[in-house]
Amino acid sequence: MEATTGPAPLDLTSIARAPKALLHDHLDGGLRPATVVDLAAQCGYDGLPETDADALGRWFRDAADSGSLVRYLETFAHTVAVMQDENGLHRVAQECAEDLADDGVVYAEVRFAPEQHLERGLSLDEVVEHTIEGFRAGESAARVRGKNIRIGCLLTAMRHAARSREIAELAVRFRDRGVVGFDIAGAEAGFPPSRHLDAFEYMRANNAHFTIHAGEAFGLPSIQEAVAFCGTDRLGHGVRIIDDIDVDAEGHPTLGLLAAYVRDKRIPLELCPSSNVQTGAVASIAEHPFDLLARLRFRVTVNTDNRLMSDTSMTREMHALSQAFGYGWSDLQRFTINALKSSFLPFDERLEMIDHVVKPGYAVLVG
């Protein structure tokens, strides 16, 4: 073996080799364009705007670049439409696990809303069963290629609907079979997290984990409710916490009460830089508050959100942040450890991955 001569360059190739942990990734936002085309033909869905895989991939990216969360969410009608039977759910979940493993992700919590996959007669339990079976098949296929990944499933309830308690019960029912937690998602404006208190109380009563989409587009009131009223374990996005941080002309930050509480309690922020730019939450990666939050020692994590719509991966997200803010390998390792510390894995399993997967993996890259 050749002796190492120093750190690997912080380029896309080297970052792809780094072990990564992902907490915020939507299953229905990460399909391969070719799979969408293929499944649409199989299930008879004729609503696709493009039937060429490359053109469809460009359409998803361009349609998501609207600067509006509501319009961004409209693109999911096409992916959800081809995930309505056993074949669609299993294939999408399997390919998700394989694609993440190929990107160097060693642990991922992938979320989806079972209530959106009932149009062809599947029950909620069947939807979850087929999806988890797909994840396991993907993990096995990745191992054959020498890539190890573990997928934990988050079950999401749509915040504009009225099934959150039912989905929370589903999450608890499957928590020993691959489901690691619960979430609510969808447009924030007009649908505050406190509408779903019954679901969150049920999760707490059953000693179960949950995260809440909050502070992506709506701002501090959404974060306040998620933290103070609902007791969330993590904040999905949470980027608008920056609105409670005042930076003076000399660059000195002052934290408001909510920002200070989130930092003091080490509530993890599931930040999704590229997605935040697409939905208009921030103007550009260079202007993203990620770096300020990281320097202030908030529990920041790097995430993809929707790999198809953002045409992204964990490697690309980390590379973009490194280019914008000058991060080195130690920073990327810290963000990865933040994610594993914040995961819904049991504590001893988190430590096992940090000590025996992440740290050795980064040590090789540092040289």
Q: What do these coordinates show?
A:
It comes from Rhodococcoides trifolii. The record marks 237 as: Important for catalytic activity. InterPro entries: A_deaminase (IPR028893), A_deaminase_dom (IPR001365), Ado/ade_deaminase (IPR006330), Metal_Hydrolase (IPR032466). Zn(2+) binds at residues 24, 26, 213, 305. Its EC number is 3.5.4.4. The chain has 367 residues and is α/β, with parallel strands linked by helices. The protein has one domain (20-362): Metal-dependent hydrolases (TIM Barrel), CATH 3.20.20.140. The chain is built from 16 helices and ten strands. The chain has helices at residues 12-17, 33-43, 53-64, 69-74, 76-81, 86-102, 124-144, 164-173, 197-205, 220-229, 257-264, 273-278, 290-295, 314-325, 329-342, 347-366, and strands at 20-26, 105-112, 150-158, 179-185, 210-214, 234-237, 245-247, 253-255, 269-271, 300-302. α8 runs parallel beside α9 and α15 runs antiparallel to α16 (347-366).
